[in-house]
């Protein structure tokens, strides 16, 4: 099967963009996209490299899902409505079983979020996936990292922070679980993250700042603090965790929750007054996404951690993921 047959069979034939929004999609030198009047476009790219971002044992359908999910998570963090995406795919060979499963997972998520594949590239080489997403927000309403204000509450979404890291450590032989069902639960968290798109939309006009948790809560929150010129105080025992993670040693629970990475939840800041907290609760309810208040923004730079008893912990003991450090 040649390159263009591959594109036609697995990608072009399954992409059905709106003719109004995308008058020209896959099949020309460039896609042609009509922006919605009054909107600003947001663009983000994420690359997944085998052995660095995913294991060779992952099912192709889950890999297709995750490749798009991690990009949709960036749009969610900015409060953007997904519109279109491109796919650049490097393959060591044409494997029709792999391509069928990958495309199935990719397009199932694309359809769920009403986002169209509009172009990209394929080539021979090591397995590598790069997706670029495009979304839109009303002018001036994008959630950014730079808006946190002193006195804001700090929140994180979801109920399973740290499960993806736990699954990775089970694969590495550094952690064990009581049952196959527990392993499947945390493995699914690692391989099938759910982008918090509806929560991101609901937080527009409510949150002051936001970011998605991809490299670890502390590292990603640190980007907000740096961009906003503020500090924060966090209660490490307020972090949401699953029953599976809660069965691990407390030190590991804290490490995986604070610095595990691959969670793709949203961490955001919002006003701490009664009206602000009510608005956050309403956004969580409207989006069907649980959120947990875990700390507060402070004027003093830096990040200060404490446990449920108020005892201070060292933030330096937790290191988030870095692409150019040995995993």
UniProtKB/TrEMBL annotation:
PurM-like N-terminal domain mapped to chain residues: 27-137
Record's keyword annotation contains Ribonucleoprotein: no
Domain of life of the source: Bacteria
InterPro entries documented for this protein: PurM-like_C_dom (IPR010918), PurM-like_C_sf (IPR036676), PurM-like_N (IPR016188), PurM-like_N_sf (IPR036921), ThiL-like (IPR006283)
Residues that, per the record, bind ATP: 120-121, 145, 214
SUPFAM superfamilies (UniProt xref): PurM C-terminal domain-like, PurM N-terminal domain-like
PANTHER family named among the record's database cross-references: THIAMINE-MONOPHOSPHATE KINASE
Note: Reaction mechanism of ThiL seems to utilize a direct, inline transfer of the gamma-phosphate of ATP to TMP rather than a phosphorylated enzyme intermediate.
The protein, known as: Thiamine-monophosphate kinase
Species, as recorded: Kinneretia aquatilis
Originating gene: thiL
């Amino acid at each position: 099967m040649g390159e263009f047959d591959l594109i036609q069979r697995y990608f072009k034939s399954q992409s059905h963009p709106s003719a109004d929004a995308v008058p020209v999609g896959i099949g020309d030198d460039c896609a042609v996209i009509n922006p919605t009047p009054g909107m600003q476009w947001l663009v983000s790219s994420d690359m997944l490299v085998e052995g660095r971002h995913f294991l060779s044992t992952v099912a192709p359908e889950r890999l297709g899902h995750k490749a798009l999910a991690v990009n949709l998570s960036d749009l969610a963090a900015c409060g953007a409505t997904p519109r279109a995406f491109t796919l650049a795919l490097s393959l060591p060979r044409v494997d029709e079983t792999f391509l069928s499963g990958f495309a199935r997972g990719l397009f199932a998520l694309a359809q769920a979020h009403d986002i169209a594949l509009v172009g990209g590239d394929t080539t021979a080489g090591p397995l590598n996936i790069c997706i670029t997403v495009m979304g839109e927000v009303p002018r001036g309403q994008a959630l950014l990292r730079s808006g946190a204000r002193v006195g804001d509450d700090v929140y994180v979404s979801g109920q399973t922070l740290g499960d993806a890291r736990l699954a990775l450590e089970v694969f590495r032989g550094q952690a064990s679980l009581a049952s196959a069902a527990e392993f499947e639960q945390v493995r699914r968290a690692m391989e099938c993250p759910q982008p918090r798109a509806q929560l991101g939309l609901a937080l527009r006009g409510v949150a002051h700042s936001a970011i998605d948790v991809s490299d670890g809560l502390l590292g990603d929150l640190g980007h907000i603090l740096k961009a906003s010129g503020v500090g924060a105080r966090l209660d490490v025992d307020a972090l949401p965790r699953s029953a599976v993670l809660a069965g691990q040693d407390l030190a590991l629970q804290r490490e995986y929750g604070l610095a595990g990475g691959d969670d793709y939840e949203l961490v955001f800041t919002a006003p701490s007054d009664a009206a602000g907290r009510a608005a956050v609760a309403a956004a969580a309810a409207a989006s069907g996404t649980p959120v947990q208040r875990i700390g507060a923004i402070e004027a003093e730079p830096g990040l200060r951690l404490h446990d449920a008893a108020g005892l201070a912990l060292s933030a330096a003991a937790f290191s988030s993921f870095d692409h150019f450090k040995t995993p």
